[in-house]
Amino acid sequence: MAHTPGFIPLEPYPRYTEDEMRLRANALYEQSSRRRTVRKFSADPVPRDVIEACIQTAGTAPSGANQQPWHFAVVSDPAIKRQIREAAEAEEREFYAHRASDEWLQALSHLGTDADKPFLEVAPFLIVVFALVNRTDENGERTKHYYPYESTGLATGMLINALHNVGLATLTHTPNPMKFLNEVLGRPSNERPFVVLVTGYPAADVKVPDIARRPLEEIATFY
């Protein structure tokens, strides 16, 4: 029989004045608006405990039935990063040469992407995020997870913002297919690769596409 947890009082939320709320909301927006995806990283080391704290923040994300269906495989070993790069580039060459439609390639053209992924070796950390479709406990009983991909997406978003908060750049890399990541990292089949999150300091000479975010009136409707 599944254990049913009890309920405890909610820890107090701070009640800010309306002016304080506006200041905090605008400050977070200003910080978040400076976040950019980069494809060129510095090899400068990043403290592991910083990455650990950011992952703990990601682990506070909401999830279906509170099943927390995610796993973060953190790679800093150069040999493993080399394996991931070689396998990812093999899939990317197939993508650009055969799998992607002309429409898809056209949509990517302004970003300057191609099959070469040197950042997979240069950046100090690759965080491979897996979504767990089920989980087997110590008694061998399997539990199905509900909304594993949506939940993992929420956790990944929180992780990206946590890394940005400490001054680290990120890149979401999704070679297709990604099953090779289970083999390279020795992860079980119930874990499905969701994204490779590349992170580190941006390179000193990095440039990013001249693009803008959609304004509020295009992304929100108030009823």
The strand line-up of the biggest sheet is 1-2-6-5
Please tell me the CATH architecture of the domain at 51-203 by its name.
3-Layer(aba) Sandwich
Coarse morphology: globular
The CATH superfamily of the domain at 51-203 bears the name NADH Oxidase
Mean pLDDT: 95
Give the strand tally.
6
Structural class designation: alpha+beta
Explain this structure.
With 223 residues, the protein is of the alpha+beta class. A four-stranded antiparallel beta sheet has the order 1-2-6-5. The chain has a two-stranded antiparallel ribbon with strand order 3-4. The protein has a domain at 51-203: NADH Oxidase. It has helices spanning 18-33, 48-58, 78-99, 102-108, 119-122, 148-165, 180-185, 216-219; strands at residues 70-75, 125-132, 134-136, 142-144, 169-173, 191-200. It contains eight helices and six strands; from the N terminus they run ααβαααβββαβαβα. The protein is globular, with a radius of gyration of 20 Å. The N and C termini lie far apart (44 Å). The longest helix is centred in the middle third of the chain and has 22 residues, at 78-99.
